[in-house]
Amino acid sequence: VLLRRCGLSGSSETSPLCQVHITGKDPIAIQRLPGGGGLLTYCRADGLFVHTLNTESGLARKVDAMAVPLQSLALRGDAVELAFVACLAVLPFLLDREKNASACALILALRRTAGRMLADSSKPDI
Q1: Residue in 40, 29, 114 with CA at minimum distance from that of residue 80
Q2: Rg (Cα) of the chain, in Å, rounded?
Q3: Distances (CA, A) of 39 to 2, 60, 89, 109
Q4: How far apart are CA 32 and CA 72, in angstroms?
């Protein structure tokens, strides 16, 4: 409902909605937003929905903290998504204070690299 009110439901720019079920936790719906970041919706057993809007680096830190399996995330495969996945691959090797301090810079650097890689892969071979 919230995504529909924001004009994001069914948009070709948003990633498909992802439902995550982690043992012992409320189900979580993750919706990536165009350009990065996303909306986490905790679906509580009492029928209450708790929404949190996250920046790209904040979403990466939350997904890492909840140990959401990468295969459960619905990804498009563009530079933004590739950078997000690469960041999630690095975060488990950092201490919490390092994650908080570096996640934003890490996302930006990985986006630039992913963008260059995708641009290079689309060039015809000579």
Answers
A1: 114
A2: 16
A3: 10, 12, 21, 23
A4: 13
Instruction: Report phi then psi at 47, rounded to 5.
Output: 90, 0
Residue type, 121: S
What's the pTM?
Answer: 0.79
Which helix (H) or strand (E) is 84 found in, with range?
Answer: helix 79-90
Q: What is the pLDDT of residues 46-101, one digit of tens each?
A: 999 999 999 999 999 999 998 888 777 767 778 888 899 899 999 999 999 999 99
- Count the neighbouring beta carbons within 10 Å of the beta carbon of residue 84: 28
Cβ neighbours of 72 (radius 10 Å):
14
Are residues 93 and 64 in contact, defined by beta-carbon separation less than 8 angstroms? no
Beta bridge partners of 50: 42
CA 29 to the chain's CA centroid: 12
